[in-house]
Amino acid sequence: LALTHHHPKERSTTTTPTMFAARARSKRAAALPTVNGSSKKQGASAASKKKSSGNSSGTGVYDKILFTGAFLLLVFTVFHRTKMSSSLNSTPKGSKATMFHKNPSQVVKKLKDCENDNFCRIFYHHIQKTGEVGASLGPFFNKGAPFQAGETCCFAYFLERFRADPQQYCHQRAAKFLEFEVMPVQFKEVVDTCLKESNITRIVGLSTYREPMQRVINTIFQHCNRGGCANDDDKCHAACKSCHLTEETQEFYGEFMGRSNTIYTDQLSLLSNYDNKHVQVVAVEDTEVNDMIAELRTSTGRNISFVVPDQMQDGECNFEASAAMMTMMKPSLDGYKEILRLP
């Protein structure tokens, strides 16, 4: 995704699997955009206008959006992280995850070794819009058994069911591959509980990740164009109709960005220190999931369907990236950069 595009699109489904690694390497080689870099031209234009017209009212509104948005995100992030991340902060220090872009053969080996171990399970930590690998890997590792990702979705709604009967998910179904669409701290609770309350002795935690601004834009697109607003939610309908980050819509869109900040900060924590004797953590970027599948196909000689990227067609709301959005999502961008640096 080029952040200057007016209508962000997903990658084309015609992309062949062999092209994913080169594209990912090219993407990581380019420096991530910064607010100063992306808005240099905009800043020069604003300075010119200010010089000619004095104290511009447009600039004042823009500054107010940035200030108010940053304040709301600060409140949201502090509250959310205090509520959600206490168990992550108390996690004993372990090893770093095995990253596919650095050690592809090791990631594939850990998945294969788990498949051949009757007391090992593969738990996929599915973060929304980061590459849906469950539909491909679920049937493969579960020997063709029906794969129903919806049974382990989503967030607090699933966690309530899980806490009521963890054996239903940890042991009784005995599926080799399970997908959990939850926050990172909730995924940790699922893994720790299953290791404690079942005969599972080892879990390979597979995590996917994605460039955060692209992920949030895709999430907003789905929410606004595919029935995410309740009929009586006037604030949601108004924000989606506007489809811009403004003083009136910053509270609505700020929730997506604040949640993203929590996700990337906590995911970095999991990938940095959760790998241990009983939990092997492996991670792959959305641009490389089909490369991982291709390596699994080669090493096992078995057919696995490739992941078809989620397409963003033109809709009534095509939310655009902006310098204000980049400022509000700084924790996400910083977390993503640190994830890419993991060995």
The amount of beta strand, in percent, is 5-15%
Q: Based on the structure, what is the oligomeric state of the protein chains? A: single chain
Major sheet description: 5 strands, parallel
SSE string, helices as H and strands as E: HHHHHEHEHHHEHEHHHEHHH
Distance between the amino and carboxyl termini: 25 Å
How would you briefly describe this protein structure?
The chain is α/β, with parallel strands linked by helices and 343 residues long. It has helices spanning 20-29, 35-38, 40-53, 57-84, 86-89, 104-115, 134-141, 155-164, 166-172, 184-196, 212-225, 234-242, 250-273, 289-300, 323-328, 330-341; strands spanning 98-99, 120-125, 177-180, 202-209, 279-285.
Structure report:
It is a single chain. The longest helix has 28 residues, at 57-84. This protein has a five-stranded parallel β-sheet, sandwiched between helices. The protein contains 16 helices and five strands. Mean pLDDT is 79; it is low at 1-25, 27-57 and 75-87. 55% of the residues lie in helices and 8% in strands. By secondary structure, it is of the alpha/beta class. α8 packs across α9 (166-172) and α11 packs across α13. The chain has helices spanning 20-29, 35-38, 40-53, 57-84, 86-89, 104-115, 134-141, 155-164, 166-172, 184-196, 212-225, 234-242, 250-273, 289-300, 323-328, 330-341, and strands at 98-99, 120-125, 177-180, 202-209, 279-285.
